[in-house]
Specification:
- Pathway: Carbohydrate degradation; pentose phosphate pathway; D-ribulose 5-phosphate from D-glucose 6-phosphate (oxidative stage): step 2/3.
- This is 6-phosphogluconolactonase.
- Keywords: Hydrolase.
- By secondary structure, this protein is α/β, with parallel strands linked by helices.
- It has a single domain, classed as Rossmann fold (3-Layer(aba) Sandwich), CATH 3.40.50.
- The protein contains eight helices and nine strands.
- Helix 2 links the parallel strand 2 and strand 3.
- Helix 2 runs parallel beside helix 3.
- The protein starts with a strand and ends in a 6-residue tail after the last helix.
- The structure holds 6-phosphogluconic acid (6PG).
- The site of 6-phosphogluconic acid (6PG) has 14 residues, from strand 4.
C-alpha cells in the first residue's frame, strides 16, 4: 500500500470542500472508466461533513452513483439512529441520486420482536440480504472474491473503531464474509451490520474523516504507535489509496509534513 495522504484543516468547512473535491474527482474518473461510481457511506458525523459542500456541486453525474453503506444500525431506516436517515438528511434530500441506486442495509428484515429477543436467525436475513445485494451488483458476470468499491468513506471512533468493527472483536479476523452482524457493539445501538475488513481493503479508495479534540489521542496512537491492532490501523487497501481528512483539533498531536 502506498503512503496515505493526510490533510488537516483549520475549520470543518475547509475539510468539507476538500473532501467534496476528492469525491467529485473520483466520481468523474470512475464514471469515465466504468460508467458508474460506487461509494460506501458511514454514519456518525461523516454525512454532515460530506454533504456540507458536496450538495452544492454542479456537474456531478448523480444518476451514475451507486450508493452503499459501510455499516448500519438495526433500527428502522426512519429512526434517528439510522445511518441511512442521516445520509438522507445531509445528502440524498439535496441531490438527484436515483432512489433505486441507494442500496440500503434492510433492518426491517429483522422483526421488532425478534430483534428484542436477539434472534441470530432473523439477523441473518439482514446480513444475507445485504451481501446478496452486493453480489448481485458487483459479481455480475464473473465470480469475484470481494467487491471493489470506488470509494469508501469511513469515520473513526475515539476507541479506534471504524464501520462497526471494534477493537479486540473477533470480526477483525473475518476473511470470507463480505457483510457481518455484530450484536455487542460498545457504541450504541448495540446491534449493527457492517462491511468486513477484506471488503474495505479491496476498495480503490478509502477516506477516513475525523474531527474534534476527542479524536486526538486515538489518532496519535494510530499514526505513531504502529501495530496497536486498532481497526482503523487494519485498513490498508491492498491496491487502493488511503486518505485522511482531519481538522486541526483532531490532528494536533500528529507530526504532519
Ligand atoms: C456508526 C458509524 C461509525 C462512525 C464512527 C465515528 O454507525 O456509528 O458508521 O463507524 O463513523 O463512530 O463517529 P463520529 O464521526 O460521530 O465520531
Amino acid at each position: 500500500m502506498a503512503h496515505p495522504t493526510v490533510k488537516s484543516f483549520a475549520i470543518s468547512n475547509e475539510l468539507s470542500v476538500s473532501l467534496a473535491d476528492l469525491v467529485v474527482e473520483l466520481s468523474k474518473e470512475s464514471i469515465k472508466s466504468r460508467d458508474r461510481f460506487t461509494i460506501g457511506l458511514s454514519g456518525g458525523s461523516l454525512p454532515k461533513l460530506l454533504g456540507a459542500d458536496l450538495k452544492n456541486r454542479k456537474g456531478v453525474e448523480w444518476d451514475k452513483w451507486e450508493v452503499f453503506f459501510c455499516d448500519e444500525r438495526i433500527v428502522p431506516l426512519d429512526h434517528e439512529d439510522s445511518n441511512y436517515l442521516v445520509c438522507k438528511k445531509e445528502l440524498f434530500d439535496h441531490v438527484p441520486i436515483l432512489p433505486e441506486k441507494i442500496h440500503t442495509i434492510k433492518p426491517e428484515l429483522a422483526s421488532e420482536n425478534e430483534v428484542k429477543e436477539g434472534d441470530e436467525e432473523t439477523i441473518d436475513a439482514v446480513t444475507e440480504n445485504y451481501e446478496q445485494q452486493l453480489i448481485d451488483f458487483f459479481a455480475c458476470a464473473k465470480s469475484i472474491k470481494f467487491p471493489v468499491f470506488d470509494l469508501l468513506l469511513l469515520g473513526i471512533g475515539p476507541d479506534g473503531h471504524t464501520c462497526s468493527l471494534f477493537p479486540g472483536h473477533p470480526l477483525l479476523d473475518e476473511n470470507i464474509l463480505w457483510v457481518a452482524y455484530i450484536g455487542d457493539s460498545p457504541k450504541p445501538p448495540p446491534r449493527r451490520v457492517t462491511l468486513t475488513l477484506p471488503v474495505i481493503n479491496h476498495a480503490r479508495n478509502v477516506a477516513f474523516v475525523a474531527t474534534g479534540s476527542g479524536k486526538q489521542d486515538i489518532l496519535y496512537q494510530i499514526f505513531e504507535v504502529p501495530d496497536s491492532n486498532l481497526p482503523a490501523q487494519l485498513v490498508k487497501p491492498e491496491n487502493g489509496k488511503l486518505y485522511w481528512f482531519l481538522d486541526d483539533a483532531a490532528s494536533s498531536k500528529l507530526t504532519l509534513p
